[in-house]
UniProtKB/TrEMBL annotation, chain A:
<dbReference type="InterPro" id="IPR009078">
    <property type="entry name" value="Ferritin-like_SF"/>
</dbReference>
<feature type="domain" description="YHS">
    <location>
        <begin position="411"/>
        <end position="453"/>
    </location>
</feature>
<dbReference type="Pfam" id="PF04945">
    <property type="entry name" value="YHS"/>
</dbReference>
<dbReference type="GO" id="GO:0004497">
    <property type="term" value="F:monooxygenase activity"/>
</dbReference>
<dbReference type="InterPro" id="IPR003430">
    <property type="entry name" value="Phenol_Hydrox"/>
</dbReference>
<keyword id="KW-0560">Oxidoreductase</keyword>
<dbReference type="Pfam" id="PF02332">
    <property type="entry name" value="Phenol_Hydrox"/>
</dbReference>
<keyword id="KW-0503">Monooxygenase</keyword>
<dbReference type="InterPro" id="IPR012348">
    <property type="entry name" value="RNR-like"/>
</dbReference>
From TrEMBL, chain B:
<dbReference type="Pfam" id="PF02332">
    <property type="entry name" value="Phenol_Hydrox"/>
</dbReference>
<dbReference type="InterPro" id="IPR012078">
    <property type="entry name" value="MP_mOase_hydro"/>
</dbReference>
<dbReference type="InterPro" id="IPR003430">
    <property type="entry name" value="Phenol_Hydrox"/>
</dbReference>
<dbReference type="InterPro" id="IPR009078">
    <property type="entry name" value="Ferritin-like_SF"/>
</dbReference>
<protein>
    <submittedName>
        <fullName>Phenol hydroxylase</fullName>
    </submittedName>
</protein>
<keyword id="KW-0560">Oxidoreductase</keyword>
<dbReference type="GO" id="GO:0016709">
    <property type="term" value="F:oxidoreductase activity, acting on paired donors, with incorporation or reduction of molecular oxygen, NAD(P)H as one donor, and incorporation of one atom of oxygen"/>
</dbReference>
<dbReference type="InterPro" id="IPR012348">
    <property type="entry name" value="RNR-like"/>
</dbReference>
<keyword id="KW-0503">Monooxygenase</keyword>
Length: 506, 330
């Protein structure tokens, strides 16, 4: 009776093969090309899908079990957080701006990744690759939902969160992240994997999540820390998938190298521009700072990225084309972004503010070669104007980059005193760019980028027709509540009052 | 809602996100609502897909079904990731203890050789059918419109992968790797399976997400699951000494009872939307349903012998009755 079952004789790798890729078969009633119609047009050549090495071996029963345990813990913590007014434990209400940007711009990206990986999970012709993509599709909807659920309680008490679903599609700065994910989804399955699986999940994710979640921990935000930690083991799987993907493409055919290299150049630069939002959060929006953007870049960009590209050199891959320009921008970008947000604060569904003396001293210590020279004088000027009762506002509209969709606020890589501006003419129309990197991306695929939806021209079209108040209604921005400066805002008044009630006897 | 803290009140500023207030009124939203409604981008999509410039990135027009609001296709189970995962985590625990029970009690060895052969001949090739269902539901999730319609499809896809894996384990437990190889060979070559394989390969090239939903989830699964896990395993084989098989397929039987509620709800709402939808769904359900019954008949013969025709007729009538409740008369 206790005869061993044959199942036990299989090794883990062999057993996993039976439980995944052996399920697929070579079709004969329909052609390969009909079933997988999008595999050829990008020019990537795959000769043997069986050479795919499963980056992790997780069967569905184990997936349900582990993920179920994580889910139980996550929701127990955010329930307690909501019940106990956990929002009053954050260091200061200014911190909320980072969360608002996250919910408006990043969580929708998680959902886009969910859809993109579902598509990839169907379009690739190898069962091993498909299963890995499908699991990521499932994880990504988890991330979108856990983020919305974790931040839902903040929406009950603070402004700026309430219309994230509308802001995703209509407010100007979210189109930076939206266009990034739309770009990846509009690409073929292989480019999608380099864009999201490799560049975003592998090269850049540490620059987004580690600072963000550490920032949450430093600033007492238990809800956000919890979704960060809970997503971490998913992210580890996603990173191994991204790396396996690029190696697989490079090993399958030498002709794939130049295509993959071009995608790495493109998606590094696209991702670097999106990360500008993170730099501002780290240097300006966290009341208690974890490290400067410069320091994060040293660790997660220069060290980790450098080591990665050293490994990939084996395959003939060189570091991304924009790598040096990125390095030159590090000491400037967060300041340029925050000055931009501050001057256009009438149009943001989060608050900005003038940094305090303490903040500025910290910044000059972290950015010794740039802050005092280029940016402190501007903040001083703005502060003086404010003190004189003439607060500095820019009601002019930003010129947006046709590629990354950020306002063209950046300076020349080798001359911080000159605004960087590039333009190109395509079919009789002039297009503007913030950088060489963005111009390159456009010029490689102009037919794609001429289609970009640009929020500023929208202002002059129906139903807004250049009327700022009408634009605010259209964009679901509540004037005087969601936007403007933090000092004096409803968020500040409420946070300080509630916290006072919670921590003092008066 | 008011929360008292140190006898002092902190007043919430609002109850829910704006888009949920517009849909459901000014009251607290459920986690299903927060995690499902309006979380897909709808406006100002930036670029057309390079893989098919005729399509939008999220495109309502790639199916013949027309909905004024795709978020009407609510999942009555209200599955979002959390509730889905916790439900399956509990079910996999039960499945695991069933497999352990089969192993510790040597149930695989008490099945008669004749029944074992018959059961393996049916169940093992079904792991490929489940893989096809995984592909099709992944497709519907990827290309369908609106989260409440598409998110259950990724859950359904992963469920089918899980089912394919349970079927593989049954093959391994009752017949070893040879059983898997023989099952795959039958799937590729044996006449009894070729109609079904052609059906699935035809599904794999069907790129109207809603038609695929009908072909896979309504027509094929609507006949196959009651046939295999009801008529064969529970009603037939269990009495022939195959109670181990019933234990090993408990997951599939329970799963079908649960998922059909969602599928019926989707069909009902889509059919009630317009006469045009109802006609389209009726045509699809009729054609794919008839074809599914035809290709399943040889499979029914493998498991039920001469009762196959009679049982298939019953299953067809049952599916027709199910569809009629959703307003679709085939």
């Amino acid at each position: 009776m206790d005869m061993k079952t044959p199942e036990k004789k299989l090794g883990i790798k062999e057993r996993y093969r039976y439980l995944t890729r052996d399920l697929a078969w070579e079709p004969s009633y329909r052609s390969h090309d009909e079933i997988y119609p999008y595999l050829a047009y990008e020019g990537i050549k795959i000769h043997d899908w069986d050479k795919w090495e499963d980056p992790f071996r997780l069967t569905m029963d184990a997936y349900w079990k582990y993920q179920g345990e994580k889910e139980r813990k996550f929701y127990a913590i955010i329930d307690a957080h909501a019940q106990n007014n956990g929002h009053l434990n954050i260091t200061d209400g200014r911190y909320l701006s980072a969360l608002k940007i996250f919910l408006q711009a990043i969580s929708p990206g998680e959902y886009a990744a969910h859809k993109g990986f579902s598509r990839a999970g169907r379009e690739f012709a190898g069962a091993g690759t498909q299963v890995a993509c499908q699991m990521q599709a499932l994880d990504e909807i988890r991330h979108a939902q856990t983020q919305i659920h974790a931040l839902s309680n903040y929406n009950k008490y603070y402004n700026g969160f309430h219309a994230f679903s509308d802001h995703r599609d209509r407010i100007w700065y979210t189109s930076v992240a939206r266009s990034f994910f739309d770009d990846a989804m509009a690409a073929g399955p292989f480019e999608f994997m380099i864009a999201i699986g490799f560049s975003f999940e592998y090269v850049l994710t540490n620059l987004l999540f580690v600072p963000f979640m550490s920032g949450a921990a430093y600033n007492g935000d238990m809800a956000t820390v919890t979704f960060g930690f809970s997503a971490q083991s998913d992210e580890a799987r996603h990173m191994t998938l991204g790396l396996e993907c690029i190696k697989f493409m490079l090993e399958q055919d030498p002709d794939n190298l130049p295509i993959v290299q071009k995608w790495i150049d493109k998606w590094f630069w696209r991702g670097f521009r999106v990360l500008g939002l993170v730099s501002t959060m780290m240097d300006y929006m966290l009341p208690k700072r974890v490290m400067s953007w410069r320091e994060a870049w040293e660790i997660y960009g220069v060290e980790n990225g450098g080591a990665l590209f050293k490994d990939l050199a084996f395959y003939g891959i060189r570091p991304p084309k924009g790598w040096e320009d990125a390095g030159k921008a590090i000491d400037h970008m967060s300041h340029q972004f925050m000055l931009g947000f501050y001057q256009w604060r009438f149009g943001t569904a989060f608050h900005s503010w003038i940094p305090s003396d303490d903040d500025m001293n910290w910044l000059s210590q972290k950015y010794p070669t740039t802050f005092d020279k280029y940016y402190r004088p501007r903040w001083d000027y703005i502060r003086k104007a404010e003190a004189e009762g003439k607060p500095f506002k820019n009601f002019g509209l930003a010129k947006l980059c046709q590629c990354c969709q950020l306002p063209c606020v950046f300076t020349e890589p080798d001359d911080p005193s000159q605004l960087c501006h590039r333009q190109t003419t395509y079919k009789g129309e002039i297009y503007h760019f913030c950088s060489d990197g963005c111009q390159d991306v456009f010029e490689n695929e102009p037919e794609k980028y001429v289609q970009a939806w640009l929020p500023m021209p929208q202002l002059f079209q129906d139903p807004v027709n250049g009327d700022l108040a009408a634009w605010m209604d259209w964009a679901f921005l509540t004037d005087g509540k969601d936007n403007g400066e933090y000092p004096g805002s409803g968020d500040q008044l409420n946070f300080d009052r509630w916290r006072g009630l919670a921590t003092s006897n008066t | 809602m008011q929360i008292d803290l140190r006898t002092v009140t902190i007043e919430p500023q609002r109850q829910a996100f704006d888009h949920l207030v517009r849909r459901f009124g000014d009251k607290p939203a459920s986690r299903y609502q927060e995690g499902s409604y309006d979380i897909q981008a709808t406006e100002n999509l930036h670029y057309r897909p390079t893989w098919d410039p005729q399509q939008e990135l999220y495109d309502k027009a790639i199916t013949q079904i027309v909905m004024k609001d795709w978020y009407d296709l609510k999942d009555p189970r209200q599955f979002f990731y959390n509730t889905y995962t916790l439900t399956r985590a509990r079910q996999q625990e039960a499945a695991e203890s069933n497999f352990r029970f089969i192993e510790t009690h040597g149930l695989a060895n008490v099945v008669s050789p004749a029944l074992r052969e018959k059961a393996l001949a049916v169940l093992v090739p079904l792991r490929h059918v489940a893989w096809g269902a995984n592909q099709n539901n992944t497709y519907i999730c990827g290309y369908g419109y609106g989260t409440v319609f598409t998110q259950p499809c990724i859950y359904q896809a992963m469920d089918h992968l899980g089912i394919a894996q349970y079927l593989s384990r049954i093959g391994l437990a009752f017949g070893g790797t040879e059983a898997l190889a023989a099952g795959k060979k039958a799937w590729i070559d044996a006449p009894a399976w070729q109609g079904l394989r052609r059906y699935i390969e035809d599904c794999l090239v069907t790129r109207d997400p809603f038609e695929l939903f009908v072909a896979q989830n309504v027509a094929l699964d609507g006949l196959l699951y009651p046939l295999v896990y009801g008529d064969m395993v529970d009603s037939g084989w269990a009495a022939e000494g195959g109670s181990g098989l019933a234990l090993a397929t408990q997951f599939m039987a329970d799963w079908f009872d649960e998922t059909r509620k969602w599928i019926d709800a989707v069909m009902k709402v889509a059919a009630a939307e317009s006469a045009a939808n109802r006609d389209t769904l009726t045509a699809w359900a009729g054609t794919w349903g008839a074809r599914a019954a035809e290709v399943l008949l040889p499979v029914a013969r493998l498991g039920l012998g001469e009762q196959a025709e009679e049982v298939m007729a019953e299953r067809r009538a049952e599916l027709a009755a199910r569809l009629a409740k959703s307003g679709i008369k085939i």
